[in-house]
Amino acid sequence: MARQLALGLTLPESTSFESYLPATNQQAVADVAACARGLGELFIYLWGAEQTGKSHLLQAATQLADQSGRSALYIPLDQAAQLSPVIFEDLEQMDLVCLDGVDRIAGQGDWEQGVFGLFNRLRERGRSLLVAARCSPAHLPLGLPDLASRLSWGLCYQLQPLNDQDKIQALSEAASRRGLALSDETARYILRHTQRDMGSLRQLLKQLDQASLEAKRGLTIPFIKTYLERQRKELTGER
């Protein structure tokens, strides 16, 4: 149950706590993991800019809850157009509910009422709730004052983005999990010549893994330079 999203899709196996580099977010990560296990705070609100790992942590918590024998559900509210607030019915029976992107439904009365009711039912039963958004509770453009008040309860963490050295470490660790060797110098080259957000970097590493396997080459700067140039030519139609 825990590995399924509300849309019936499977959570990616890579979204674990082990694959998330905490950097300056250690306390937030520790508290989210404890919540997933049914320990510590019952309600945690995470917020921050894009690519700070909010979705990663909520998905990791969902999977950790499953591994701990708890029932859990991850709901991506950025896909609310494909869903309905009725999805919240009876979710108080779950041990953990993760609502990702609550800012996406702000200002929509039926959705706000749905989240408000779910919050109250989970709290009454002593269940856990993790919420993520791009802004703090105080800055959510909510039309329901009581929901704004509820979302200010519990722990609230602003996730901080990774700096360049953190990204180098994250790339190195991600490469190691794939059985690849990636030097700091090579990781710096990648940062200088590609999109720098972690989502794009992880996707590139996946592509480089496949390309290096096919070419029977290691992840060296010359190999990566050639690969990136070939990708650029394919995108531009250059020969």
UniProtKB/TrEMBL annotation:
<dbReference type="InterPro" id="IPR013317">
    <property type="entry name" value="DnaA_dom"/>
</dbReference>
<dbReference type="Pfam" id="PF22688">
    <property type="entry name" value="Hda_lid"/>
</dbReference>
<dbReference type="Pfam" id="PF00308">
    <property type="entry name" value="Bac_DnaA"/>
</dbReference>
<dbReference type="GO" id="GO:0032297">
    <property type="term" value="P:negative regulation of DNA-templated DNA replication initiation"/>
</dbReference>
<protein>
    <submittedName>
        <fullName>Uncharacterized protein</fullName>
    </submittedName>
</protein>
<dbReference type="GO" id="GO:0006270">
    <property type="term" value="P:DNA replication initiation"/>
</dbReference>
<dbReference type="InterPro" id="IPR017788">
    <property type="entry name" value="Hda"/>
</dbReference>
<feature type="domain" description="Chromosomal replication initiator protein DnaA ATPAse">
    <location>
        <begin position="15"/>
        <end position="156"/>
    </location>
</feature>
<dbReference type="InterPro" id="IPR055199">
    <property type="entry name" value="Hda_lid"/>
</dbReference>
<dbReference type="InterPro" id="IPR027417">
    <property type="entry name" value="P-loop_NTPase"/>
</dbReference>
<feature type="domain" description="Hda lid">
    <location>
        <begin position="164"/>
        <end position="228"/>
    </location>
</feature>
